[in-house]
Amino acid sequence: MTDPLVQLAIMWAGVFFASLLASKTKLTAVLYFLAFGALMVNIGVLPEETNIFIHYFAELGIILIMFALGFEENTRNFISGVRRSWGIALFGALAPFTVAFLVADYYWDNLNVSIMCGLTMTATAVSLTMVSLKSLGLSKTPAATGIMTSAVLDDVASLAAVAILVPIATGEAEFSLISISFTVLKALAFFAAVAAVGIWLLPHHSGGWMSRIPVIGRYGARDFLAADGGEHSILQVLLFALVVGLVAHRFGFHPAVGAYMAGLILSEEYFMLDDAGARSSHARTKEVVENAAFSWIGPIFFVELGTKIVFDWEILVSVIPQTTLLLGAVFVAQIVSAALAARYTGGFTFHESMMIGFGMLGRAELAFVVMGIAYVEHSILTTEAFYTLMFAIFWLNVAVPVTLTLWKPHYEKAANISARGVAS
Q1: 365: Cβ contacts below 8 Å, ≥ 6 apart
Q2: From the CB of residue 243, how many other CB atoms can be counted at a distance below 10 Å?
Q3: Average pLDDT, stretch 360-376?
Q4: DSSP class of residue 197?
Q5: Can you give the pTM of this predicted structure?
Q6: Residue 385 and residue 111 in contact, taking contact as beta carbons nearer than 8 Å
Q7: Fold of the CATH domain 4-423
Q8: Could you tell me the residue ranges of all domains in the chain?
């Protein structure tokens, strides 16, 4: 079957049913998107070689997903929670990166493969954890806030690591002190440029040195988004995301890195159409962006990635030891590192710390972005490494709702004892 529109129709049908299954099972829909793509390619409905139209449609999807993830973050809440959650993010990312790197190095003895395996296991799937916590009635707890903030920090740090390490692993930058330093400086320059845009260019300024600059000193993002009554705000923010993504690509990074940063620096206040804030197009824009990113364009990226899982019994059997070791090592390292950091750097209670450790187990969007870059675009990962990562991530995601459900009675019992102690 070669008609790309027929392929797209099949993929969209799969996305619909996968979303229904995800809502019933409380698991991340990404797992079902991948499973559908794998099923369709193995029964011959979808081709192993993706049509060029589908490929670029999927690329647009991951850019939209990363922009939506950044756009939905409340920057103020994120900054206010950094002080308490920095240790969870730091140690909760270093530990899985290290153990994944070591396991990959033990089995495949390839520095680039080890780097990409480590990066894949670094970022936490906050959406999966928050859905699980919400279904358990725990989404408003201090532990949930700690998970959210540290997961966002993880994502930002992981994006920085992707920006620095991927060019090295792909051979675009040499593995030497000078080359690594240059890559780090490029990453710092890009993030600094984006931060400067967020601090000085986007906000509406009424005074200071910015007011002396022609045009920029008089207008800000609010003026831009308010044009024609805010009717084109969706087009404007998507254009902004794509432009920043293209700038990131010019720096040698994946466009998704730029798209995420573009979403992160767009504040809700920019969408107010008058000073009193009586009307805002932010909610409407966010709804449309998230719908496109998570319902009909973005999922195609994961379905296409799933089509790379061509079942081979020999490979499936051969990666059982690697998958078991990687899964066990990341499971233990993630829980222990995040829980200890939450307890001793964040000041959380023991039961809150354990819940944070369990909540940090999931891997979703960013992990698959890294795998897409490493396996599909640059052929860094071997087939065995790709399958090992896929299976390990699947079981880590399954572990999130299971461990949180099992821990909930202990957490609630401790919370009730603490509440009675305060009342007395």
Answers
A1: 30, 65, 66, 69, 125, 127
A2: 13
A3: 82
A4: I
A5: 0.71
A6: no
A7: Na+/H+ antiporter like fold (1.20.1530)
A8: 4-423
Cβ neighbour number for residue 73 with a 10 Å cutoff: 19
Is residue 385 within 8 A of residue 359, CB to CB? The reply is no
CA–CA dist 255, 164 (Å, integer) = 14
Token reading at 58: 């999927």
Question: The tokens 């990131």 sit on which residue?
Answer: 248
Q: What pLDDT, on the 0 to 100 scale, is given for residue 2? A: 66
118 CB-near residues (< 8 Å, 6+ apart): 96, 97, 98, 100, 101, 104
Helices (H), 136-176: 142-169
> Rounded distance, CA 269 to CA 267, Å?
5
DSSP 13-34: HHHHHHHHHHHHHTS-HHHHHH
HSE-up (13 A, CA, CB side) for residue 180 = 6
Mean pLDDT of 255-282: 73
Q: Residue 165 to residues 2, 114, 146, 160, 296: CA-CA distances in angstroms?
A: 36, 11, 27, 9, 31
- How far lies 360's CA from each of 162, 230, 353, 395, in Å? 19, 38, 11, 13
